[in-house]
Amino acid sequence: MKAPLPRKFRLFGRDTRTDRVVPPSGAAAWLTLLTAAAMAFLAVFALALSVATGRLADRWSEALANGATVRISAPADQMATQTQRVLDILSVTPGVETARALDPAETQALLSPWFGPDLPVASLPIPQLIDIQETPQGFDAEGLRLRLSAEVPGATLDDHQRWRRPLVAAADRMRMLGLISLALIGAAMAAMVTLAAMAALSANGQVIRTLRLIGARDGYVARAFVRRFTTRTLTGAAAGTAVAMTAIALMPSAGDAGGFLTDIAFQGAEWLWPLTIPPLAAIVAFVATRTAALRSLRTVL
Amino acid sequence: MIAFRNVTHGYGDGPLLSDVSLTLPPGSFHFLTGPSGAGKSTFLKLCYRELMPIAGTVEIFGQDVSHMSRDAVAMARRKIGVVHQDCQFLDHLPLADNVALPLTVAGREANPEELKELLAWVGLSGHARARPPSLSGGERQRAALARAVITAPEMVLADEPTGNLDWDMSQRLLTLLVELNRMGKTILIATHDMNLIRTAKSQVAARVLRIRDRTVQHAGADL
Question: Which of A49, A160, A200, A237 could cross-link to A281 by cystine, CB 3.0-4.6 Å?
C-alpha cells in the first residue's frame, strides 16, 4: 500500500478548503509570479554560461594537452637536414604518436590572419614547424627538450603548457562565476519570496489570529500560505525557464567563426539541466515561506 | 476542567487580576460579572490561553498552559467554543463557511443539513452566503455563537454574548446554552445582563462569579 505524503508536503493535491482561508492577494500574487519567472530566466542563462565555459575549458584543455610543436630556426640550406633529424628523433621517442612537418601552405594559413593571404612564405626566414600528437601516456618533455638541444641546436620544443594554463584557468573561473551567479539568483529568489510571504502574513494578521483561536494548528495556517507561494513560484519559474530555453534554442549558430559567444547553449543531455530550475525554485519557495510563516505564527498565542 | 491557582495578570499599570484561585468543574454553569474594565474579558482569555498568567498557573483540561505545546493549545481550543466580544470572522468567506470554520481547521466536513439547521436556529438562514462585513452587530454575535457551538465543544465561553441581541434572541441563546449544559458541557458567560442571569438561575444550577478588588469571588445571595 502506498503511504500518503505528510500533510506539510502535500502542495499540489486538492485542498481548496485550506487555500480558501487565506484571502486572495491580487498584486502580491502577480509579483511573486513575475519575480519567479524573471529569476528562472536569468538562472537558465547563468546555467548556460556555466555549462558553455565548462565545455570550453575541457576543449581547450584536451586540444592543447595532446599536442606539442617543435620550432626549427636554421639557415635555409640546413633547414631540410635539421627537420629530418628532428623527425627521426621524434619517430623513436616514446609517447609520440605522430610527428609531421607543416608544409608551406599550412604555415601560410597559420600566418594569414595577421599578414594576409599574399604573404610570400618561401622568401621569408620563417621557422619550420613540426606538429606532434602524443599518445595518451604523453612523452617526457624535459628529456626530449635536452636531446633536441644536444642534437639539433636550432630546434625548440613547445609543449603548450604556458598557453594552456591561463586559458584553462580563465575558463574554469568563468564556470565558477556562472555557478556563483546561480547561487546568488537562488538566494535573491528566496529573499523575494520571503518578503512577499511576510507581507502577506502581516496583512493577514487578523485571519491568522482568528484561525488560531478556533483551534487551527500552526501547520494548517502555514500550509495555506506555503501552498499558495510555492505553486505561484513553480508556475512563474516554469514559464521563465520555458522562455529562456526557447531563446537559447533560437540563438543563431555561427559555427566555428562565432567562437565562445555562439557556444552559450546546451547540447544533448545538457538540456535536462534547466528543467531542474522550476522544482528547485519551488523548494526554495517552500522552505522560505514555511520558515517565514512559522516565525510569524510564533508571535500569535 | 479549568483551574486557576494564584493567578495574576495585568497590562503594565499594575495587576488587573491578582492571586485568583478557582476551579470550573466539568458540567458547571457560571456567570462572570463585574464592572467594565474589571477584567472579565481578561479572565476569559486566560481560560483559552489567548493570554498567559504573569504569575500562578492556569490548567485547561488538566494541562498547565505554560507547559503546553502550540499544537496542544490548538487541540484544547477545539474543545472550547468561544464567543468573543469583538466577533472576528474571515471577511472574504461567506457566513456559512465562517460558521463551519472550526470543523474545517480540524479536518472535518460540516454536514450541510446540520449547518443549515444551526443557521436557522440563530436566525441567519437567509444570510448563509452573506459576507461578515455586511452583517449587523447582532447578526455577527449570533453567527459567533453558531461558530462556537458547531463542534459541540466540551466548554463554551461567551464574552457579553447578549450585548447586541434583543430579549427574544437572548432567551434563545440562553436556552441553547442551558441545553448544552444539560448535555454535560461546561458554560461560562461574562455578562452585565442581570435579567439573563436571573432567568438562567430559574432553569439551571448556575453560579455567579464576581470580579471585585482584582480577584474573582463567588457572589452570594445579594446578586
Answer: A237
Amino acid at position A230, single letter: T
Asked whether residue B85 is assigned to any structural domain, the reply reads no
Calpha distance A31→A231 (Å, rounded): 13
Kindly report the number of other CB atoms within 10 A of residue B58's CB atom: 22
Reduced to 3 states (helix: H, G, I; strand: E, B; else coil), residue A96 is strand
Does the beta carbon of B51 lie under 8 angstroms from any beta carbon of chain A?
yes
B143 pLDDT band (50/70/90 cuts)? Answer: very high
In this predicted structure, the answer to whether residue B167 has a pLDDT above a threshold of 90 is no
Q: Which of B99, B105, B109, B145 to mutate to probe the A interface, most A CBs <10 Å?
A: B105
Amino acid present at A123: S
User: Could you tell me if B110 and B103 are in contact, meaning their C-beta atoms sit under 8 angstroms apart?
Assistant: yes
Put simply, the chain B residues between 138 and 157 with a CB less than 8 A from any chain A CB are 147
Cell of B181: 449544559
Question: Nearest CB to A17: which of B88, B91, B104?
Answer: B104
Specify if B84 maps to a domain.
no
Same domain, B145 and B107: yes
Its domain, for residue B129, covers 90-152
Cell of A41: 530566466
A16 or B77: whose pLDDT is higher?
Answer: B77
Q: Which one of B52, B91, B104 has the shortest CB-CB distance to A301?
A: B52
Averaged pLDDT, A91-102: 89
Segment among A107-121, B83-97, B153-167 with least mean pLDDT: A107-121
Q: How large is the average pLDDT for residues B138-146?
A: 89
Statement to judge: residues B1 and B48 lie in one domain: yes
Q: Which residues of B touch A298 (CB under 8 A)?
A: 70
Tens digits of residue pLDDT in A24-39: 766 777 888 999 999 9
Distance of alpha carbon B87 from alpha carbon B142, whole angstroms: 9
The alpha carbon of residue B221 is apart from the nearest alpha carbon of chain A, in Å, by: 35
Q: Is residue B159, in this structure, part of any structural domain at all?
A: yes
| B193 occurs within a structural domain | yes
Q: Which of B104, B131, B149 to mutate to test the interface with A (most CBs of A within 10 A)?
A: B104
Total number of domains constituting chain B: 2
